[in-house]
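One example given next:
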Amino acid sequence: MRLYVHIPLCRKRCYYCSFATVIGQQHKQDLLLDCLRKEINQYPGYRLSSIYVGGGTPSFLKEKNISLLFGRLKDHFVFKNNIEITFEANPEDMSEAKMNVLKDVGVNRISLGLQSFNGQALKFLGRTHTGDDNRRTFQSLRSKGFDNISVDLIYNWPRQSAELLADDLKDLLALNADHISLYMLTIEPPSRLSISGCPPLSEEQQRKHGFQAHHLLEEAGYRQYEISNYARTGKQSQHNIGYWSGDNYVGVGPSAHSFVNCRRYWNDPLLMSYMKKITKGESPLSGEENLSATRLFMDRLLFGLRLTAGVSISQLENKYDVKISQGQRDKIDLYVQEGLFVRDGEFLRTTLSGRMVLDEISVNLIDR
């Protein structure tokens, strides 16, 4: 089993953010931790192979609340010997005391939200740290003994040129991180960029930047294993691979999603509503669905195509006792001809060009 913990609290909302986050409720930390404890108690004492604490901004938690959270997790669940424990962090939150606490509670993987080293880009994105903060925080984490650090970079912000992208990647690669998550800027409601009508780069420029970034990362020794993720050997995110591979997982906290034995369910996304339900002893759920074999088959197919390892359609057909339709086979054949897919034995994989437009391909593969 895998566990996701959602911490919705943020110091401020980044201008591109469209996630379930809360600003100005920092004084609710203690109550949120108490509600998380109560929700955790609703689950059996699963054996966990990975934990991911995301948000929001988990690193905004006070040191004592980080200790309380992990203390409850360790008391209630069984941690496998090689468990991967990821904690999302922003550079401006990472004091020496907080790093020490994270080390003490057993966090062994940090996901650091750098986003850029360019001062204008950071301001445009609404970040409150600088490129120098990025470097200092990363080196401090290394000095504390964190040997599995993932860093995030956002590219394709307006007016970003090939030269500016190359500069950002050069600064990023100089850190010698273990894992890199490379995200194309998406402008979606209700983000501030969406409300302001910010125009994105052209699709052609976005693709050019995507190819440029991919080749620079590969040349530096990072291997793409999923659309947005590159890693050194052995440093792939086991938690996220679990999502894409169809593993069972539970999520706690407002807006957290879970998937257990063909059932998908999710919590109330509003912090106050979530905490009110938990405090009253009610279920925090706001929705659920039981997935049919056909739906599970398609989910696994589409998620599998996100991974560079690809997916075996015949294995999925046997597992779910579902046959892919002739229309879907025809579409796949066409994508192979167009160079977006490639067949490797029984595995179907996306090419780099295919990964650039996989969202569009995925929509087209779903039978109407």
About this structure: The longest strand covers residues 78-89.
